[in-house]
Amino acid sequence: FCQSIIHTVFPPELRFASVKIFQRIFHWASSYCYYDITEIDGVNTNELYNAVQLYLSSSASITGNRLSLTRGLNSSAITFGLTNNDRLIDTYNGVQVIWEHVVTQRQSQSFSWRPLPEEKRGFTLRINKKNKAVILDSYLNFIMERANEIRRLNQDRLLYTNSRGGSLDARGHPWESVPFKHPSTFDTLAMDPSKKVQIMSDLKDFADGQEFYRRTGRAWKRGYLLYGPPGTGKSSMIAAMANHLGYDIYDLELTEVHTNSELRKLLMKTSSKSIIVIEDIDCSINLTNRKKSNNSTSSAVRSPEGLLTTEMRGAAGEESVNSITLSGLLNFTDGLWSCCGSERIFVFTTNHIEKLDPALLRSGRMDMHIFMSYCSFDSLKILFKNYLEYDEGDIDEDLMEQLKQVIDKAEMTPADISELLIKNRRDKERAVWELLEALRTRAEKKEKGNVINEEEQEKRALETNGFEDDEMFKKFGKQEQREEEFSDEKII
Ligand SMILES: Nc1ncnc2c1ncn2[C@@H]1O[C@H](COP(=O)(O)OP(=O)(O)OP(=O)(O)O)[C@@H](O)[C@H]1O
Ligand SMILES: [Mg+2]
Fold it and tell me: In CATH terms, is domain 159-290+329-371 a member of 3.40.50.300?
């Protein structure tokens, strides 16, 4: 109204100045002050916007009259939110504040480094001037804390992936996310119970250790290396960790990342209370190149820059060389940048720990090395409970004894045993008997394989007059045995 009066009364050259003066008078006379919290702050996503949205979605469900309801793809929860340009009253410490969700169309851009969303979204907080000091600091901190809590309590964890490489989406995120629904828990995980207790208490110490990490001057992060043959539960363990702690997972696909700085950017965009995973780390990085560069570099540990180069074969079969270096990866896990957030867990998995560089394995980077072994007798009992709902004592003692005798010799993975049990889960007795049969056959094959290997080694030793390195024979024998194992697994 005032603006239209100004337009008619004042000549064009005075209009701008008069609008400014009127605005000042209005703000001075008004008993309220206003704060805008925009979704995108310059080029980055505004964390406070997300927190306010989450916080209001919990109170909006109770008090709002007109709400927008959303349910994400695959999500189990319905989220309440303010509709466009709608308001909500919130009370904090007896003080009333008003939130408004403001959505406006963005003017079309002639040129931009990256596309921005078509809508400009933001929240406006209106508070009484006299409550300004009381409310601002503590209320906004309270909102941030509440939002974190809601996120943690919310059963839907998020699984992030960097399938676009390091490039950003319209909202400035390099990560894409989906709800994380893996049902694996420490209860369902088949492994040595004492190891399980050790890992769980380590995780608990970590999660409760804010004061400890602050006092000792250590970054609040921890690294776990999970290693062992395929199908022994490494990925299941990561899911169990995330479910146990209520953390999100960032699954980092190293082959999609091209440079160290891209890697750093990805790290900067991860949130606190999260698990950053690199699966099959030995496969993500070409270790053969390391040897080449090794020759040209005097010390591997002192000057690791350029030691590792990741090679990626393009769809056309061309080779494009990625420039992620071991140094980049080491800094990712333990450099200054790794501390840009807090309460973060790094988990690397591999089938071949011997292929990894010792610098990567040292404490501070990988604090705990967890060997995921073939199925043991204790693990088998957990699988029986999971798949057949058998408790201890439900299976005949004699049968259990026979299983116990053969399980370690058979070297079968929990994944293989699970498959057998799933197949026969409607006929539980048959499931156990078939498993015993399979374990026996497998143990026999292993034993035979070992005898053949030993005979072969002796024969070769005679042929080479014992000059050849014993280790070479062991390796050779083992390799053949591995190949046999794989072909065997396919048959099962
Ligand atoms: N220790 C285990 N406890 C319970 N289930 C397991 C375990 N190990 C394997 N499984 C079952 O086998 C399947 C494959 O396991 P998982 O993907 O965790 O193996 P992995 O060690 O990550 O294998 P890879 O090295 O090939 O990635 C899972 O779906 C899970 O059901
Ligand atoms: Mg896996």
Answer: yes
